[in-house]
Design brief:
The structure is a homodimer.
Chain A: H1 4-11, H2 15-23, E1 31-32, E2 38-39, H3 42-56, H4 61-72, H5 79-113, H6 125-132
Antiparallel strand pairs in A: 1-2
Chain A binds a DNA duplex through residues 3-5, 14-17, 19-20, 24, 33, 35-38, 55, 60-62.
Chain lengths: 144, 144
DNA sequence: GTTGACCTTAGACTCAACTCTAAGGTTTAT
DNA sequence: ATAAACCTTAGAGTTGAGTCTAAGGTCAAC
């Protein structure tokens, strides 16, 4: 049975974050002292560690909530449900990477066009390019 | 002289956004009607378009503020100042891409390990991997 | 028997870039 | 002269994932 600060030390999640996760239904303390102190069982610790791993794998707290409901009742959930969540997250990540790569290209082109020297910016080609607005890549903007 | 809705139509930025940008010092209407309606000159329009292009190039509103101060007084600013802003943004983008690629790899490995079928999740290898927590990539978390 | 470290709660604040609302004033077309 | 379409402001709400504060209760050690 661990107190919240001990679980915090074990998981690297702050006590604040642990309470926040509790408020969001992700973790609970199975036991409480008379005064209301949280006491975490081994199972609680494993659940908290699962949450942390999932978070580090890029899942949102909402995703993690779904993964946890699979976790507590594996018999009623299929592998497909799990891969759906994972695939959806991967699609999201791939989309963001594509956006950022387009941005990366834009910025690289801008940087390559400019001397970067100490001369004044009267003829700076980055400024000119932004002034023209011709190379629009619309990165980061939802187009749908 | 354009009214705000007309500038909105020209730039694709909503009137709300244009007012918001004004509040943040990015754009202004050079003229106003007696009743206080904003009227934008050609120079205002060019400035708004500059802002839009910069935003589409991934610059934050704060970055754009800096770019605009170069823009209004190019003689007192150097190309280097402009490339510094741009390089800084590129570094940021590269960092995010690296994070996301690490995430992408994690998710891909997870997906490859699981059958994704209709069988129940009792032996789902994604769930097992999250349970183990061994493959930690800590994507998206500041480590510094 | 008190100091200091810990715990509790509810709720406000942070970041960025909007987005929207309320409540009202103006302009234009009929 | 009145309705529709536009404009104004101040300020609140959104998103996600925390982070922090205030005000107080509890526990262990000395």
């Amino acid at each position: 049975m661990l107190k919240i600060s001990e679980l915090s030390a074990r998981t690297g999640l702050s006590a604040h974050t642990l309470r926040f996760y509790e408020k969001n239904g992700l973790i609970t303390a199975s036991n409480h002292s008379e005064a209301g102190y949280r006491f975490y069982t081994d199972a609680d610790v494993r659940r908290a560690e699962f949450v942390k791993t999932a978070r580090n794998s890029g899942f949102s707290l909402e995703d993690i909530g779904q993964l946890l409901s699979v976790r507590v009742d594996k018999l009623s959930h299929s592998c497909q449900q799990v891969t759906d969540i994972t695939q959806h997250k991967l699609d999201e990540v791939n989309g963001k990477i594509a956006e950022l790569q387009s941005l990366q290209q834009t910025l690289t082109i801008l940087l390559e066009s400019c001397c970067g020297g100490p001369e004044n910016a009267t003829h700076c080609s980055i400024m000119e390019a932004l002034e023209e607005g011709e190379f629009r890549n619309n990165a980061g903007r939802e187009t749908s």
